[in-house]
User: Fold 3-oxoacyl-[acyl-carrier-protein] synthase 2 from Streptomyces flavochromogenes.
Amino acid sequence: MSGFPALVTGAGLVTPAGVGVKANWDTVLAGRPTAAHLPELDGLPVTMACQVPDFSPRELGHGSWQWDRFTQFAVVAAREALEQAGLTPGGWADSSRVAVIIGSGAGGTATLEAQHRILLEEGPSSVSPLTLPMGLVNMAAGQVAIDISANGPCLAPCTACAAGASALGIGRELLRQGVVDVVVAGGAEAPITPLYVSSFARMRALSRRSDDPATASRPFDAGRDGFVLGEGAGVLVLETEEHAAARGARPLARLTGYGASSDAHHVTSPHPEGRGAELAMRAALDDAGLTPGDVDYVNAHGTSTPLNDVTEAGVVSRLLGDGVAVSSTKGVTGHPLGAAGAVEAAYCVLAIRDGLIPPTAGLVDPDPRIAVDLVRGTARTGPVRAALSNSFGFGGQNATLVFTA
Assistant:
């Protein structure tokens, strides 16, 4: 194994599966779907989504009302990740050696939609001066950096549904290049809004099972008819081996491989042969110094859409063989877009830590065209020495991460 190891020393999660790592992991391992009817979506083409439960921004303290929901998620997840890592925000020996990278596909869409309505209904003088400080895609990264007093590089990759994974891959590169010692990286998204729901519905990307939301997100199932929109944030703390060792930190896992590619094919549909996805997966394995036979688990992009699931499974089968365990946690969380890659990266870290592979919720009747070892029903027990996490986004954006024990 020759991949540069970025040590994962902390994780933070805010998703429809719960607020906090423990609540998330319990829900994901149990395979409990979170999709539900949301009254605020009544009148739209789809009235269900996966929403973060019991989330109160009041706990964030003074000034958090000036943050869009996606930023609130990011700050909560970052604080948990740092606490788990045993790092004190603001207590840095050299704050210029601490980077923050939080990706997002949409940014503060709720803020932008609300202010656009005000512009049309009340005129420009009524638009909030906080519209851009709340709505810009980079504001989750910026507010996390402010919150933890980090003066290193502050970046916000916007690679659609691959954004969270891109952030982690870029963070590892900063560590490898010696630019920083610590990276707080992940993704955040809060897209359950009228415009986003309506847009995805018009594209026929969303499941129409609004009469039975709990069965709507069903990755790899023969009856799948689209994804369920989700929201949330996932953040990991990455460190160099030297920095972690100097403070006696014990890693949860290691990020040892990253691959990125473009389909260069279509703005929304995957390449029919999964060419871009395969390039990203091969690059990540090569970067990690692993062979296909070294991978024990694939956390698939697995969106529950007709095209993605068959294409992705075909690449996994072709590259890794039919015996590697595969599951999609979107059966529980829905699809949190730009946060997905970071959230699912955290689940890979937990799978390595605990030797447990989460099942694919909603998977009852596997698509006969899919020839991989799909984990369903209950979590699977066994050592996970290497886990691969796939994230693919609109525009043909592909990112793959490899985590090892």
